[in-house]
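User: I'm curious whether this sequence folds into something compact or stays loose and floppy. Could you predict its structure so I can see for myself?
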Amino acid sequence: MKKKILAIVMSIVLVCGVVCAFAACGNEPADNDGTTEAPAAASDLAYIKEKGKMVIGITEYAPMNYYEGDKLVGFDTEFAEAVCEKLGVEAEFFIIADWGMKVNELDAKTIDCVWNGMTITDELKESMSISDPYVVNAQVIVTKAENAEKYKTAEDLKGADIAVESGSAGEKEVVALKLNAVPVKAQADALLEVQSGAVDACVIDITMAKAMTGEGTDYEALTYTGSLSEEFYGIGFRKGADTADEVQKVINELKADGTLDKLAKKYNLTLAE
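Assistant: Here's the prediction. I'll summarize afterward.
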């Protein structure tokens, strides 16, 4: 008798399992190859608007983002503020201590975008959604004025110690040329290394070199010489985020109404076509 009752119970359990399995299958859409679709990602733009602010990852360097007294100014500062105003959110700036960790900061949602003279590269395109190019840049050699004739080309840099910002386009260029790269945390640190004599030269963005070296600057004894590459700046967002498309629409509006052109002239920059 006990065996008969056990058999009945087991049959009921088996039938329930089959019914549940079919119900589950009916509720989860499958791809053509039979695999289950991942649920759609929530809107990144909605997340930012719900917070009421866009957290913008930067480093400090002129003319993109820098301080005049207690006030943060610069091309990217004003550019980001203009975009955020049109989006109806506050622009909040967060200093990325290690530029090489910018993708990690973005994915962890410590920041919502990277907007600080970021050079567009194929490598970054794999881990971020990036805006259209907005400013033309170049990687240039900076050295002491007394060494200007000595370090003008990639060939001249053979055997020299060259400071580069870790994770930057400058580092990538120096490594690709098989030169002796000395990584530091920020481009400003690279300038300090040259000024102190710890290295022979550094490779940084021309936008910074023009603003930070030569007569009347903090680095009067330094000058920039030759260019190693031309490149373009872009704004990085979380991969696949709808924020990228929305911000690009606003940027196009700022181009059309002349706002971006005025900013470029103010900070002596060349806009990308």
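Summary: The two ends are 87 Å apart (CA to CA). Residues 1-41 have pLDDT under 50 and may be disordered.
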